[in-house]
Design goal:
By secondary structure, the chain is α/β, with parallel strands linked by helices. About 35% of the residues lie in helices and about 15% in strands. It is built from seven helices and seven strands, in the order βααβαβαααβαβββ. The longest helix has 21 residues.
Length: about 200
Amino acid sequence: MNIMLIRHGLTKSNVDKKYLGRMDEKLILSEKKRLKDKWSDIYNPDLIFVSPMKRCLESADIIFSENAKNKIVIDELKEIDFGIFEGKSYEMLKDDKEYKKWLDSGGTSVIPKGESREYFIKRTIKGFNKALKIAKEKNAKDIVLVVHGGTIMAILSEISKRNYYDFQIKNGEGIKLILEEDKYEIPYYSICGRIDS
């Protein structure tokens, strides 16, 4: 099975370099044309799985306008909950005691009123496995997930057992994943791995 993981297009918070998790922003206007031009006629998947956030739903509708009505929303594919950091930039937070503590942990500790990375990865993998189960039941060979940067990092770091930040991608970009006999390959990175059940 071919799996394309696509990060949603740019929002205002992305442009302003603010933490964007549970806030439900739409794409900026200029991003709609850029996404359409970039992905037009490139990929025609059997199934499209999407985070329920507006930025992902809108990106999927733009990229896959012909198939968009067939998209399947999976709640567990939402971005990490940034809690008290939500909607704020590094500049706004750099002197905050809680923020410094979170940075010192490498971004792994629980975000106040938000999630820990460990919980986020477990939630994301649950959603990813849900998508794979549906895809297998429907004999899909090519699927797409239109999700968040953090969601992609969570999935690929768990599969490869590599660093979470190794898999950062830009808005509107994608990474291909190949699944054969319960083993994954991330071709661009020349990485193989499994998700522990």
